[in-house]
Amino acid sequence: MGPDPAVAAVRLAVRRVLADLPADALVLAACSGGADSLALAGALAFEAPRVGRQAGGITIDHGLQDGSDERADTVVRTMASLGLDPAGSIAVTVDGPGGPESAARDARYTALDDAARRLSAAAVLLGHTQDDQAETVLLGLARGSGARSLSGMPAEFRRQGVLYLRPLLGLDRATTRRACTAMGLDPWDDPHNVDSAYARVRVRHEALPALEKALGPGVAEALARTARMLRDDADALDDLAARAFTDLEAPEDGYSVALRLEGLDDLPRAVRTRVLRMAAVKAGSPPGTLAAVHVDAVDRLVTAWRGQRHVDLPGGLRAVRRYAKLLFGPV
């Protein structure tokens, strides 16, 4: 008799991403000890040796709760018992701008980046599920950040030269919990995951259930499906914008970035605003604080110019229209 259907689903998802990695590659599971990442770790430990890959695991001790070091040790022992080698923990200091969630995420990824490079890992697997994707889409909708934000989390991405993969985006959280039960694994429930001080927790326990009650079941799946379609659209528009940026960029002494206005105003708005955002970011405006309101104001320098002098941008920058060019540089 085969494995439990939930176990089979998680293993299949992991097997698919392993197939695209080099033979004999080391693949790491980022494991918090929660149901999603624990099911991921169990599936990786099972599948990797069967396809000629090495499997290891890393847990991050954020130090945000009493006994977090003991919890990390427990996760390491669990990963080792599954057969993950190496299996280790990394303690990080959580501080910096953007609030505790953002600071913890930055510290976690920095530690994973360093570990993956040190161990020459081909990829790091993350345990985000379809439910996480739905929550991300709703949070993006609330921010009004456009198609890129609504496209949710990518199935794969690179940062600092490290490949990250999310094989479980097509599975729901109930499946990973059932998989843990079937594999005899005891997941840890992080108390932060029920703390309503966090916006994501409110979405998880209040907004999504309310939508399910009002609209019927399947809301999370529909949101995740929408994210996949919007990501395809956003990728295509970003590619068009990158080509247009290359064609329109022109040298200009004293400014970080200059764009020729001829041709810029003819672009579709969806492409043009992306070009303007690229120009501002290249000039040094921080992407995290460069908002749609800033890009819209710069766009008016192109399409609705009435002699306005400039637009101030985050990072101490300014966009100026002058001599048939749009110029970006320090104030």
TrEMBL record:
GO molecular function, one term: ATP binding
Coiled-coil regions listed: none
Boundaries of every tRNA(Ile)-lysidine synthase substrate-binding domain copy: 259-325
Entry keywords, A to Z: ATP-binding, Cytoplasm, Ligase, Nucleotide-binding, tRNA processing
Subcellular location: Cytoplasm
Binding site residues for ATP: S32, G33, G34, A35, D36, S37
Entry's EC annotation: 6.3.4.19
Ranges where the tRNA(Ile)-lysidine/2-thiocytidine synthase N-terminal domain occurs: 27-206
Catalytic activity line of the entry: cytidine(34) in tRNA(Ile2) + L-lysine + ATP = lysidine(34) in tRNA(Ile2) + AMP + diphosphate + H(+)
Family according to the record: Belongs to the tRNA(Ile)-lysidine synthase family.
Record's comment describing the protein's domains: The N-terminal region contains the highly conserved SGGXDS motif, predicted to be a P-loop motif involved in ATP binding.
Descriptive protein name: tRNA(Ile)-lysidine synthase
Species for this entry: Actinomadura geliboluensis
Gene, per the UniProt record: tilS
